[in-house]
Specification:
The chain is an alpha/beta fold. It is 33% helix and 19% strand.
């Protein structure tokens, strides 16, 4: 199935100051495409919080925010949306409020519920692309299954300590199975259990993931389909392997 094309109904005004600093790298026509894009972000913790910040600022027109968790004190070291004042608050609601303060033109669908096999297709349906910002493998596979059924691409990022990885999965690709093995044999969590999660790694991988999403939506640049970007911030290594 071919992923849906992005079509904007409203052209971005040439003199709109919000996107003026984008202009040398993103044309007015490309900015209009982004305005017409609908992106689902599943998981609104470290990766997801930084991701929605970037996507709202760059001008994605509609964001679906999916996460049933609430903030807790252990989130404070890495999650941009988490503050001491909003401990206990639903992450999806905090993300929606943050977007409204950044860019009121972004249409937000707030889903303060966990994604599961029964609701996954409904929750991310209508999106042109889905961002996997999760912290557990079973739910990652659920998102991938829904994206395959809907015929949309998925950008998947993961972090552990000072390392991270990123890939772009199109419908029909081997996808997460090529990275983790069969879904039924995958552990619930990865190396972050041993290595922890650091804020600089989270923000770096979220930035790379958003960049990959923008390239896919605009049809520009070299993408990571069929490839896995491996990032090691400790040794300043960036490697790409075929998957």
């Amino acid at each position: 199935m071919t992923p849906p094309s992005v079509h904007a109904t409203t052209t971005v005004p040439e003199d709109e100051p919000r996107y003026r600093r984008n202009r040398e790298s993103i044309t007015r026509d490309q900015q209009t495409v982004l305005r017409g894009a609908r992106v689902a972000v599943v998981g609104l913790g470290g990766l997801g919080g930084a991701t929605v910040e970037i996507l709202a600022r760059i001008g994605i027109g509609a964001l679906t925010l999916v996460d049933g968790d609430r903030f807790e004190a252990t989130n404070l070291n890495r999650q941009l949306l988490c503050t001491e004042k909003n401990l206990g608050r639903l992450k999806a609601e905090a993300a929606a409020e943050r977007i409204s303060r950044i860019n009121a033109a972004v249409a937000v669908r707030c889903v303060p519920h966990h994604l599961d096999p029964g609701n996954a297709v409904e929750l991310i349906g209508g999106s042109h692309l889905v961002m996997d910002c999760l912290d557990n493998l079973p739910t990652r596979f659920m998102v991938q299954a829904a994206a395959r059924q809907l015929g949309i691409p998925m950008v998947s990022a993961a972090v552990a300590g000072t390392a991270g990885q990123l890939t772009l999965i199109e419908p029909g690709d081997p996808g997460l199975e090529a990275v983790y093995g069969p879904a039924e044999a995958a552990p619930e969590r990865g190396a972050e259990i041993r290595l922890g999660v650091l804020p600089q790694t989270v923000i770096a991988l979220a930035s790379l993931a958003c960049n990959e999403a923008l390239k896919r939506l605009l049809g520009i640049g070299a993408g990571l389909r069929g490839k896995l970007l491996l990032v090691d911030l400790l040794d300043n290594r960036f490697d790409i392997v075929e998957i």
